[in-house]
User: What shape does this take?
Amino acid sequence: MIGSLHLICGLIVTLIVTADSANILGVFTSNSPSHQIIHMSHVRALVERGHNVTVITSHALKDKNPKYNHIIIPETELRKNTVAKVMQAMGKSEIKTTWQYYQFAKTAIQSIGLVQSDAIKSEKFQELMNNPGNKFDLVLLGYFFSDYHVGLGEHFKCPVVISMTAGSSEFVNRYVGNPWEIAYVPSVMTLAKKNPRTFLGRLELFYNVALSKLFMHTMDQQFSELYKELFPPSKYPPLEEAAKRVSLVLANSHYSEGVVRPNVPAIIEVGGIQIKEKPDPLPKVTLLLLFCGSSCLNFVGF
Assistant: This one.
């Protein structure tokens, strides 16, 4: 009898499933709704695994019944006007060379930094940061030239995971020790994203890498000033020290497509994470256009 009881108890113990739930903060201050497709895919996966996630964004999200805490930062005239100017400049610019791309990117970064730093200065974001009851085990940072946001990991004394809307690049590779591999891996400044196969191709890549390093130097100067403004030196360590909180990069790429390159274990390729196993049905208007329209239909997807 006692032996049977021990056996039953042993079986019950083996069936017990333990769960470790973390308190996670998702910071997605980019004003581009398409960026949230990737970032929110990570959030939903975390929620499904039982984690408590708080998301802070610059605009409303489409989830009708969210299972996460959502904080919306009200739009300001500064952010609205700055984004409008950047979009207008993008529409007018004709980028045909690497140098033109460099010049445009250098100007755009200033505006992007202004918009995303303004989001952190908002009343709601400051309430979140200054509430002593808010403790987070992890900060999930939606990266859009927002390196200075790594200070949030230092503020909450927790690791930072970077969510990319594209593949890994030199901008974030440095945080996890992913090498440049300049002999065959295109830089951000390379317009044609493919592995070079000739000597001239590698020579061009070397030129693009030099431009990228120059761009990163300019970018780091701007980001360092923004970091000091958001995270005063009297309370926080330098940006270079805070960046050591980055422990993982989720890259929106896959080795089966695009550029082929080796990555360190801290770079996780999650390309396709936004694809649903069961797709949503097409809207009725779209179906009518597809099957009843007389003109061709151009479909643009993200």
User: Anything to note?
Assistant: The domain at 20-276 is CATH 3.40.50 (Rossmann fold). The chain has one domain: 20-276. Residues 199-230 form the longest helix (32 residues).
